[in-house]
Design brief:
By secondary structure, this protein is of the alpha+beta class. It has 2 domains: 150 residues, Creatine Amidinohydrolase, Chain A, domain 1; 270 residues, Alpha-Beta Complex (Creatine Amidinohydrolase). It has 12 helices and 16 strands. The strands form 5 sheets. A 6-stranded mixed sheet has the order 4-3-2-1-5-6. A 3-stranded antiparallel sheet has the order 7-8-11. A 3-stranded antiparallel sheet has the order 12-15-16. Helix 1 crosses helix 4 and helix 4 packs antiparallel against helix 5. It is globular. The two termini are 16 Å apart. 43% of the residues are buried. The model has no long low-confidence stretch (mean pLDDT 96). Its EC number is 3.4.13.9. One of its GO terms (biological process) is proteolysis. It holds the Pfam family Peptidase_M24. Belongs to the peptidase M24B family. Bacterial-type prolidase subfamily.
Length: 430
């Protein structure tokens, strides 16, 4: 999609948001809504701030991730008022506002003050954002029912949002290819991270989340957060979970690569890849997302048996006795949008057999989800199973061989379409 087409879709996106927000505001009994962009908090006992990426509803409208201390006023029947903080500052650069068509849909003002804009406003006003930024601002702060209604406006993505998510996938896959090559060439976790950033052209502070780059046993820590600067003597596996932001929208992609000579681990990756594609094929309107999660456990049980990890236990027993949870302890995925774990995923609590599942809804067209099954060798979870009643059914030599590889995760970003699904990640990898 060309940039011209994308910008045209953004103008349509703003119109759609105006309608959705007006409806939410009216249904909750308000006459207007003021949204704070937020600001990076200063670290305790220091004069340095944390990295800033913006408050979700502000990004939903503007995509301006680096715009601190700014405000958006939404009023029924009027142009949104966008007040951008632009101080005279010789210490730091001021974010530049692109000259794009969507700005014609707004009343744009600039201020060298961090305060909320002066408003000629009568009526009941709601104000949403980080509470630390709302002190002294008139209006009702973060009303719970309205916040829930605003979250719901983000569930069904507009064509513009899907186009941004597709572009974020395309850029991220360039990084994943570079990361894989660097690993196979013998690079360290740190070198792999640098290769990813170089290929995507995005600093780690701009990325939607801290990239997870685990080589060998580090791949078995789900959110492994460090980067070794020295490569292991024997590189056996790479798990990289990394995304990109594009105009505020996130990609969230995971790939696992076997090292040279790791035939058993490579076969396990291939088996999980086949399962992951079947699960992506389940995505469609009317499908219970929890059912996809449960189908994952059935598939992992079959994979454990096929790979010779367990023997003499049927797939159903492996699921019922919690064995598959030891190998796959997290949920199958989540909503995706201007937040990696986007909002409104849990209208109902997670079921007892999936306590970490972030999405419990029935799928509908316009939703964007991740599908990310995994198989891990995590000692703290697996050792109690090995020492339990089914311990004799495990092939210890196979498990010991796999321990040094850590684990596998494969993750794609999938749009629910009116008649099925569109896999943005596989499109970008084609």
């Amino acid at each position: 999609m060309s940039d011209t087409e994308l910008l045209s879709l953004q103008t349509d996106h703003i119109r759609t948001l105006q309608q959705r927000y007006e409806q939410a505001i009216a249904e909750q009994g308000y006459d207007g809504l003021l949204i704070s962009s937020g600001a990076a908090p200063v670290r305790y006992g220091d004069d340095q701030a944390w990295h800033f990426q913006g408050y979700g509803p502000f990004l939903h409208w503007t995509g301006l991730t680096g715009q601190e201390h700014s405000w958006l006023l939404v009023r029924p029947g009027q142009k949104p008022l966008l007040s951008l903080y632009q101080p005279v500052d010789f210490w730091h650069a001021t974010p530049e506002l692109p000259d794009e068509p969507w700005l014609q849909s707004m009343d744009v003002r600039f201020s060298d003050r961090r305060d909320a804009p002066a408003m000629d406003f009568n009526g009941r006003l709601a104000v949403v954002g980080d509470p630390s930024q709302l002190s002294g601002v008139d209006g009702e702060h973060n009303p719970e029912d309205l916040l829930s209604a605003l979250d719901e406006t983000r569930v069904h993505k507009t064509p513009y949002e899907i186009a941004c998510l597709a572009r974020a996938n395309h850029i991220a896959m360039q990084g994943h290819r570079a990361a894989r090559k660097t690993f196979l060439d013998g690079g360290s976790e740190f070198a792999i991270n640098l290769a990813y950033q170089q290929a995507t052209g995005q600093r780690e502070a701009q990325a939607p989340y801290h990239s997870i780059i685990g080589v060998n046993e580090h791949a078995g820590t789900l959110h492994y957060q460090y980067y070794d600067t020295e490569a292991p003597v024997r590189p056996r596996s790479l798990l990289i979970d990394a995304g990109v932001r594009f105009r505020g929208y996130c990609s969230d992609i995971t790939r696992t690569t076997p090292g040279a000579g790791e035939r058993r681990f490579a076969a396990l990756i291939q088996g999980l890849e086949q399962l992951q594609q079947r699960l992506c094929g389940m995505v469609a309107p009317g499908v219970d997302y929890v059912a996809i999660h449960r189908k994952t456990h059935q598939g992992i049980a079959a994979l454990l048996n096929a790979a010779g990890v367990v023997q003499g236990v049927d797939d159903e027993t492996l699921v019922e006795r919690g064995v598959t949870q030891a190998f796959f302890p997290h949920g199958i995925g989540h909503f995706l949008g201007v937040q990696v774990h986007d909002v409104a995923g849990k209208k109902a609590p997670s079921p007892s057999d999936a306590p970490f599942l972030r999405l419990t809804r029935t799928l509908e067209a316009g939703m964007v989800v991740t599908i990310e099954p995994g198989v891990y060798i995590i000692p703290s979870l697996l050792d109690p199973v090995l020492n339990g009643p089914l311990g004799k059914n495990f092939n210890r030599s196979v498990i010991d061989e796999l321990r040094g590889c850590g684990g596998i995760r494969i993750e794609d970003n999938v749009v629910v379409t009116p008649d099925g699904a569109r896999n943005l990640t596989r499109e970008a990898d084609g």
